[in-house]
Structure formats: structure tokens, C-alpha cells
């Protein structure tokens, strides 16, 4: 009975749909002399920019020094997004959310909207940042916001519309302590931390609203992974998986009929076929599971003679 239950569970779940959701992300700033000591005459914000990513703290991490690749440093000190964009575009675990300028050019009640942002369930965390300008190295941010709700019965598991406060953080790369500053590099860099003292006093400097638009189940990935061919089957131990082009196949897993994972193989990019030697396994029936980078999977029976 245990064997049958495991087999049925895998066969019924042969296809796992890669899900996406669309959100509008809007930020409205708060900057006043009551909460933040003063408002410089040229107070403003750098373009709002961000990323969706696979892991918590993939893009930004509080309590540690800013990376030497300078994405966060340059945003916090000058508002430049070039290094940040390069970091995200070369990171296989993150997807860039293109920047959008604030309007009007002002400290208080200035807004920026990132509309129609598509979030993939493989990259469910969102981080967004913008420079507090002028400042030595301060920026507002929300970090690693999980857009998945854990309730698949509502919005396919994506969160409903919600809002959060945004606070100011010190990038730890400049030692000046007021809005107007001279360039005073911090060496070595201090950990990124909230600006809890003068002049911002730990008060919020913006609110961000994630507006849920829609979500989909991606059938395209399912069709692609379904077209993979595994042969020979039955086999004496050596098999080939072909038609890998454009599938983004990530891993191959082999299970015994009792549900024990007996082999796990990572797949390199840009290969058209994969030759596997499973001759170390005992003769019998197994289940082979293919999983791609978008969360789609395909499972089928494999017999080793």
C-alpha cells in the first residue's frame, strides 16, 4: 500500500505549474521637519528601482557591509543605479525591476510607481530602494518582501493588495551625519543599519503599496518540459534525456518506489541532451522527476533491468 500511495502521488502531480503574478508597486514619500528635523530646499529622491529574487537577502542585507560591487553604495550616495543594475543582471537568482522616477521633484508627498511588475514563484521576494537626497549615504528600502501568501485557494497563492512603511537606512559607506555633507568615506565599511538617530530619528519616510492585479499558471513551461524524451526505457542503467533546448531543466531526481531519493543530478545550461549512468542502482522500477528553473516538473516511470 505504501508503494502504491507514493506512486499515485507522483503520477497525479506529474505536472507542477510555474506561477506568476502581476503587481503595481507604488511609493509615496514622507519628509517633514516634525519627524525628520528639517527638509533641505533641494530634497528629493533618486529613481525607485528593485528586483525580485529567489532567496532572502539576495539583493540587500541589513546588518552587514554593503557589497564591494557598489550597487547599494552608489544608490545611497549619488542615486546612480548603474552598478545595481549590473549586479542584478549578472545574478542568476534575481530579476531586475526597471527604475521609475519620482514626481514631483520634492521631499514630501512625491510618488513613483512600478506598474505591471511580473513576479515568478521561483523569485517570490521583492526588494526596492531609493536614495534620500541630499544625504551622505542614506536610502529608503523594503527588503525581501515575500509575495507568496501560502494560501493557494486565493489568487493562486499570491498576496492580496497590501501596504508597508519604508524607513531610511545608512549604507555604512560615508561617515557624515546630516543631510548636507562633505564626502567622508567610511573605511572599512560599516554594516547597513537604520538611521535611528539624528536627523531622521527612525521615523518612516515613505509608504509602499503592492497592488495585486492578476496571476496565471504558465502552461508554456509545462508543454516544454513534457516534450523531453527519456530513453531507452527499460534500460540496463544508461539513459539519455533529449530535447533539452529552451527547457531550462534544472535537476533530475530518481526515486525508489518507496519514495527514497536515490540520485540527484544538476543540469548545466545550454546542453541539448544529458547522458546519465544509473548502473549503480539495483534492478527494478524507479520514478524519474525532471524539474526546471520555473518550477515546472514532469515525473515518469523508469525500469532498470
UniProtKB/TrEMBL annotation:
Signal in keyword set: yes
Any Pfam family matching the protein: Spond_N
Gene Ontology biological process terms, A to Z: cell adhesion
Gene3D superfamilies found in the cross-reference section: F-spondin domain (2.60.40.2130)
Residue ranges of every copy of the Spondin domain listed in the record: 11-203
Domain of life according to the entry: Bacteria
InterPro entries the record matches: Secre_tail, Spondin/Thrombospondin_T1, Spondin_N, Spondin_N_sf
Assigned keywords, A-Z: Signal
Signal peptide: 1-21
Organism the protein comes from: Algibacter marinivivus
Protein name: Spondin domain-containing protein
One Gene Ontology CC term in the entry: extracellular matrix
UniProt keyword Signal present: yes
